[in-house]
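Quick board copy: two proteins, each given as sequence then tokens.
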Amino acid sequence: MRRPRVGHIEFLNCLPIYWGLARSGALLDVELHRAPPDQLNHALVQGHLDIGPISLVEYLRHSEELLLLPDLGVTADGPVLSVNLSSKVPLAESGPNPTVALGSTSRTSVLLAKLLLEQRYGLAPVYHEAAPDIDTMIASADMAVLIGDEALKVHFGRGEDLNLSVLDLGAAWREWTALPMVFAVWAVRRDYAAANPGLVKGVLEAFLSSVELSRRELEQVAAHASRWEPFEAVNLVDYFHKLWIGLGERHLSGLREFAAQANRYFDVPPVAEGGPEFFAPT
């Protein structure tokens, strides 16, 4: 029997979920595929992966094919640090039709930015896609939406270097709705779960154990990451505290609210009645 094909986002935000896997040897039990979020979204939907992270928007579009894994999501109940909108002037001073460069690596964060700009702040922006690099993005637009490690660089100094106003989109969502934001979830293909429930249960248990270990060893996780990323360990500890790997009832309320807003204003299906559906280990 082949090993489960499992996706791994190439961003710091997912390091806590894989920290313990490497420590325990559980990575030997899976076929790990590292890629940017948009590639992993496509691979899971197309059946090239069995289990993996998927952006919330893509999960909503393909929920009939997927089951969520319990207690696993990339979430923030306030500032997230790694999802932001950078602008040449504060939003309050912006004209009604700013140009906005969209980093093309996260459909959920892009949609969140559009919801906030259009529905909360009442703007009518003109959007275009761009490679996720703040220097080139802000050279071609009034504002730029970035996620992941590039957004962290903006938060931890690059935004100040460029004299930019930086809005944390996790904090903006929390202020608007009083709910957490769910950026991504972990899911398993329904057909794979039906055929291999024991393997899926094993992967889920390994993930949850890894997250718990990372929470206990957060300073070690941050120190390890700081050796190969351009961030100080103390800043990464702050980041990992704000970015929560989990999916409790409060997060699910935020998920449903985002889905309802996205359905109201954009072409995104709502959460099915009684949903979302989870893989149920036996």
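And the next:
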Amino acid sequence: MRKRGSGKKGAAKSAFPVLFSVVFLDFLGFAIVIPYLFFFAESLGATPFTYGLLVSSFALMQFIFMPILGRLSDRYGRRRLIMISLLGASASYLVFGLADSLWLLFLSRIMAGVTASTYSVAQAYLADLTAEGDRLRYLGLLGAASGAALILAPALGGTLSSIYGYSVPSFLAAGLALANLFFAYFRLPEPPRARSGAGGTKGTFSALAEILRKGELKLLFYSYFSIILAVVFMDVALTPWLEVTMGYGPFEAGLLFFYIGIGQVLSRAVLLPRLARVLSHVDLTLLGLVLNTVSYISFGLMPGNLPLLLIFGFLLVLGFSVTSSTINTLISLNTPEDLQGGSLGIAQSFSGLAETIAPTIAATLFALGISLGVSGLPFLAAGLVSVVPVPLMLRFRGKNYRGTARISDAQPLELLKSRQREKVQRPLR
């Protein structure tokens, strides 16, 4: 008799390299524009406040549309929604490159936020193909794809914008998204769960409401919100903190972010799978929260010391990589199979909400900290926020999230291959 879940394992191994490439290219295009976004907006007359609104507009659109697009992927297929997202990304970067006024720049970021669902739908795609015992490993590797892109893209965008101006890297991002769309069209098959119409007949909003009524999922969403809120506090305050405490400029900050990116890839691709062999998902999450809290507080209290910065920086990257991967895995494992896209979309919506409100709070805390002589105040606040999920996660301690379960004896690998041979697709309705 074939081992339970072996079909899913084979399907995941077959489809994952393609999905990894799709996510890598998507984040590469997304992150190319980050280094010069502020300077581009400033050249069009943006004030710091207007720039804050510009950044928040992207996150706000994510907050609104992520769950909707995720649920649509439950009903109409992962592949189709990934391609729609990539098409929207390409169009948004094209408008970005052509922008000669602030309203066009806002339009481009709003367009990008509305269709920025590639990652959450890719997570749901993996949930369709993986047994429960393999899900954390694959979701961690998918996170490594985004981390790898974030290592390369800022340097690429910063270099191109300094040589050729702001339009050329924007058009490159548009071209990458368009190439990614064609790559997904020809190489990415529909997963068998979506092919079999398992998304159910519930309407989009009724299904999302059903997800939000589930008590365990709400605890996980709140935990994820806290984790993202804390890390955005860190992201926003880190560069000015480096300048104030250590006298670092853009070059040194860029090197540190490169180091952080390398640490993220190593944590997700190498360390996380090994830790998962000896710890349950819940214990891993608690370990990550402890690492996060200790690292944030250490940043808040430490003097300008490079060795300590590198040590606690790596511990923070490891803690965040662990918690973000395990929380998304726990969300998936606590969600019915026909609601995976909607549930993971809601998780990213909570992330978008945190990214919308955190920059203003972090900037205010940093200014207050400077006036009080405590420049690390945003990091201390992040440490406090990181404690919030601990009692929530303790409620999951008695459950086993390590074995494989809730998977059928169907053969998804064979279905996946047959899907590529079929010409008839379920109509979009």
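Board note added afterward: The chain has one domain: 6-199+211-421.
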